[in-house]
Design goal:
This protein is of the alpha/beta class. The protein is built from 13 helices and 12 strands.
Length: about 325
């Protein structure tokens, strides 16, 4: 690409300042954060690149509005809000920022686990309501408990290290990881049914795909150790939320801590009514550090893609 021409890059959502700063060296940056979808589509008319987070659905309609689009950047890990097949068919490169959020997501998962084990959110709410009710919030220790990880990628590996520091036994289910690799990380591989039966705490760290959608449903809950506590800050839709509510009400599941939901934003509903559930609004990657890294990494990938250079974080292959 000629150094004189500055391709248009549209930023569809709130991103770290470092993203725009890096892009502005070679590109014309159009900030569309907060704009309605109809306005975003107008701004995409001349765009050669688009950068999103999880709140923008990049589907065929949006791509139709961007006839010059060559690169889509996802400032984060998951790309389930992007129609990868359609992008690939059109020759549009899609890149994410796979490492940027890992530490923040792992720390948030562990924070949710601690909040669940020690009733931190409920205790806080009780004091704010003018009550002092210690007896109602007796919790459990993490030490000596078995933590089951469904997914042993970057984030699952980081959670393993933190769990071992808390003297937990860690087991994992991941068909793409060898038993020896898991052993080196510090955990034991099990098949899913055995993991469900042995885990005192269960934490999910996998993408939402057709194979993982509603992976934890009524049949899975029935196989779990009674009193299990479940954490999910990976992707919504992996847990059948209706079945989870039933399992909590029956006592099979002691509680859950959820950062992601089948439909977001999640406002109201039976999960909100259950005191055994801790809820956060998709905060896994919401740290200053993660957003700075995600913004910079995706900007680097977008610029490389526009200039025809190798993109390490590409999630599809185009010609």
């Amino acid at each position: 690409m000629s150094s004189e021409r500055r391709p248009v890059v549209v930023l569809a959502e709130v991103l770290s300042d470092v993203c725009a700063e890096y892009l502005s060296r070679k590109c014309q940056v159009v900030n569309a954060k907060g704009e309605p979808r109809t306005r975003l589509m107008e701004l995409l008319e001349d765009a050669e690149a688009l950068i999103v987070r999880s709140g923008t659905s990049v589907d065929r309609e949006l791509m139709d509005a961007a006839p010059r689009l060559r690169v889509i950047g996802r400032a984060g890990v998951g790309v389930d809000n992007i129609d990868l097949d359609e992008a690939t068919r059109r020759g549009i490169l899609v890149a994410n920022a796979p490492d940027a959020n890992s530490i923040s997501a792992a720390e948030h998962a562990f924070g949710l686990m601690l909040a669940l084990a020690r009733n931190i959110a409920s205790g806080d709410a009780s004091i704010r309501a003018g009550r002092w009710d210690r007896a109602s919030f007796r919790g459990v220790e993490l030490a000596g408990k078995t933590l089951g990880l469904v997914g042993l990628g970057r984030i699952g590996t980081l959670v393993t290290a933190r769990a071992r520091a808390f003297e937990m036994r860690v087991v994992a289910y991941d068909p793409y990881v060898s038993a020896e690799a898991a052993r080196q990380i510090g955990c034991t591989l099990l098949d899913l049914d055995d993991l469900l039966a042995e885990s005192d705490f269960l934490s999910l760290h996998l993408p939402r795909t057709p194979e993982t959608a509603n992976l934890l449903g009524a049949s899975a809950f029935a196989k779990m150790k009674p009193g299990v506590r479940i954490v999910n800050d990976s992707r919504g839709g992996i847990i059948d939320e209706e079945a989870l509510v039933d399992a909590i009400r029956s006592g099979q599941v002691a509680g859950a801590a959820l950062d992601v939901f089948a439909t977001e934003p999640m406002v109201g509903g039976p999960l909100v009514e259950l005191p055994q559930v801790v809820l956060t609004p998709h905060l896994g990657a919401s740290t200053i550090e993660a957003q700075n890294k995600a913004g910079l990494h995706v900007a680097e990938s977008v610029v490389a893609g526009l200039w025809g250079e190798p993109v390490k974080a590409a999630v599809n292959r185009v010609t």
